[in-house]
């Protein structure tokens, strides 16, 4: 089934579900510029913008844990290397906060939440074999 279009075109965003809502986070927009914007989809309101990321980023990954959204790593326009920074979104207050960095910079990697921890693995370049447990 085709859904309504987002308000902003984006490629390489992170997409997660939290409490029955879909979030499209960051990505690249026009002219391949990283996006700070975040959109939330509900069946009653469609797509709407929520508070933007602190750092524009793409090729990141996101997970939900403890009723929050964690966005990890990726690339940003002001950084030539991968990011190791992490941001946390609280949907109740519509706010993003900076969290402790991951150990390594990563882009194009996998992430999953399990038993109160976030596990990240792989990535583009020399990081394919590494795995770390992130404790928010």
Automatic annotation (TrEMBL):
Transmembrane segments: none
The keyword Protein biosynthesis is annotated on this UniProt entry: no
Record key words, sorted: Kelch repeat, Repeat
Name this polypeptide is given: Kelch-like protein 4
InterPro entries: Kelch-typ_b-propeller, Kelch_1
UniProt entry tagged with the keyword Ribonucleoprotein: no
SMART domains: Kelch
Domain of life of the native organism: Eukaryota
Source species of the chain: Zeugodacus cucurbitae
